[in-house]
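Hi V.,

You were right to ask for the full record rather than a summary. Here it is.
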Amino acid sequence: MKKNISLFIIGFICGGLLLNFLSINAIKVHKRIIRSGLEAEQQMLAQRAEREGDYMQALVHRWNVVGAASQEGFRVFRPETSKGVDVGFIFPFQAIILSQIFKAADPQGKGKRVNDGLQRAQLALTMEKVGMVETAAEQWKKAAELIPMEIDRLKKMTLGSREKIYSDLSKEAERVILDE
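Predicted structure:
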């Protein structure tokens, strides 16, 4: 009986370790798949934008392709970024808990919609600054629908948040995160 229990415990531990190693490898492979998918999607979007004569949009997509393909590109794909993420033995269990926290934090998806709206408002403001007024108006409209908020109020709020990018706190955060 003791022998069976010992074999069961040893088998359980060995199985757990094997799953852990498989998990670590799967995460690396999955990251490569996401990177390749991003490259391919951005390449196709750039081609479509060029065919339609929207060279500013094509430029953005081409820049994203370079960012995804380059070793100096998107930080999320860099090996050193992964080192900060603990993918140890208990990570699969932590992932389940994190998934439940995400679901509980925004069950109706309102926060996700508001974030999408705020990002579109930032995009619209930048588009206006480079002279893309018509395209910016479309983004303002979409942003106002997502939040929901009047466009004039949204513009004031977005301009107010833009002032914060010049603060010392914002610059320090960028230095810490981007210049690691």
